[in-house]
């Protein structure tokens, strides 16, 4: 069974601060997806990283895929209250069992004004 | 675009009752999945389908049935509801294993 460990589980910071969320596994994934979920809604894809060492930027959000494709990080610069939500990483394994998508348990992020 | 549509959005059941959660997608996606989301447990896969007529069990299948008679629809049936099935249920679809998963808005189910 493939597992994705996300840390921290909860994070509450002030607006304007920087933060990093981590997604770690002992398994190799063909790609890794990051989703954001707001209360009462389903998760929505933010980005997919595919190549080991890849860095993608989405405005103030920076996503990195580890060189060995086992881990990933999400860094938010100058956090805003609108960044509040549940952030989920999901590993894609085309050759794995089940439906090929393994979710971490998520990081609950609260940005206080 | 409608995307993935789940109904109902809220439901209260009594222990032992049965019901069907509906899920429909209009993107012609082959892959469809059902998850439950509980505090501290993340998204757990219940059942999934890789195409019409093909279904398989996920991590937590007990107490649930699915069928996939068409590409568009993937209903989830609770045979005899139990309080342990109180949860938020999400349906998702994808074109293939490497692409984005599109989620419905979820069904919040309470079993009393």
Task: Jot down its keywords.
heterodimer; A: 113 residues; mainly beta; 6-stranded mixed sheet; 5-stranded antiparallel sheet; globular; B: mainly beta; 7-stranded mixed sheet; 4-stranded antiparallel sheet; 11 strands
- Percent helix of chain B, as a range, is under 10%
**Proportion in β-strands of chain A:** over 45%
Oligomer designation:
heterodimer
Uncertain regions spanning at least 5 consecutive residues of chain B:
none
**How many extended strands of chain B?**
11
What does this structure look like?
The complex is a heterodimer of chains A (113) and B (112). In chain A, strands 2, 4, 5, 9, 10 and 11 form a six-stranded mixed sheet that branches. Chain A is globular, with a radius of gyration of 14 Å. In chain A, a hairpin with a 5-residue loop joins strand 7 (61-65) and strand 8. Chain A has 113 residues and is mainly β. Chain A is built from no helices and eleven strands. Chain B is built from no helices and eleven strands. In chain B, the strands form two sheets. In chain B, strands 2, 4, 5, 6, 9, 10 and 11 form a seven-stranded mixed sheet that branches. A four-stranded antiparallel sheet of chain B has the order 1-3-8-7, with no helix packed on it. The model of chain B has no long low-confidence stretch (mean pLDDT 95).
Write the layout of secondary structure elements.
The complex is a heterodimer of chains A (113) and B (112).
Chain A lengths: L4 E3 L2 E5 L4 E6 L6 E7 L6 E6 L5 E4 L2 E5 L5 E6 L8 E8 L8 E3 L3 E6 L1
Parallel strand pairs in A: 2-11
Antiparallel strand pairs in A: 1-3, 3-8, 4-5, 4-9, 6-7, 7-8, 9-10, 9-11
Chain B lengths: L3 E4 L2 E4 L5 E7 L5 E8 L3 E10 L2 E4 L6 E3 L9 E3 L8 E8 L7 E2 L3 E5 L1
Parallel strand pairs in B: 2-11
Antiparallel strand pairs in B: 1-3, 3-8, 4-5, 4-9, 5-6, 7-8, 9-10, 9-11
């Amino acid at each position: 069974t493939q597992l994705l460990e996300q840390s921290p589980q909860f994070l509450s910071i002030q607006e304007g601060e920087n933060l990093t969320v981590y997604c770690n596994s002992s398994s190799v994934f063909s790609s890794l997806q990051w989703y954001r979920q707001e209360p009462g809604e389903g998760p929505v894809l933010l980005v997919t990283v595919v190549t080991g060492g890849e860095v993608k930027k989405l405005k103030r959000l920076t996503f990195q895929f580890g060189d060995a494709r086992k881990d990933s990080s999400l860094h938010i610069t100058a956090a805003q209250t609108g960044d509040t939500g549940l952030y989920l990483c999901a590993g894609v394994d085309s050759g794995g069992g089940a439906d090929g998508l393994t979710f971490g348990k998520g990081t609950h992020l609260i940005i206080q004004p | 675009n409608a995307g993935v549509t789940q109904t109902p959005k809220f439901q209260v059941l009594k222990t032992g009752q049965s019901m069907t959660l509906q899920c429909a997608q209009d993107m012609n996606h082959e892959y469809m999945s059902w998850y439950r989301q509980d505090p501290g447990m993340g998204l757990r896969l219940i059942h999934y389908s890789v195409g019409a007529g093909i279904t398989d069990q996920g991590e937590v299948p007990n107490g649930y049935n699915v069928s996939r008679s068409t590409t568009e629809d993937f209903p989830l049936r609770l045979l005899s509801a139990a309080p342990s099935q109180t949860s938020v249920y999400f349906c998702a679809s994808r074109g293939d294993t490497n692409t984005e998963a599109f989620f419905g808005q979820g069904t919040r189910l309470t079993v009393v």
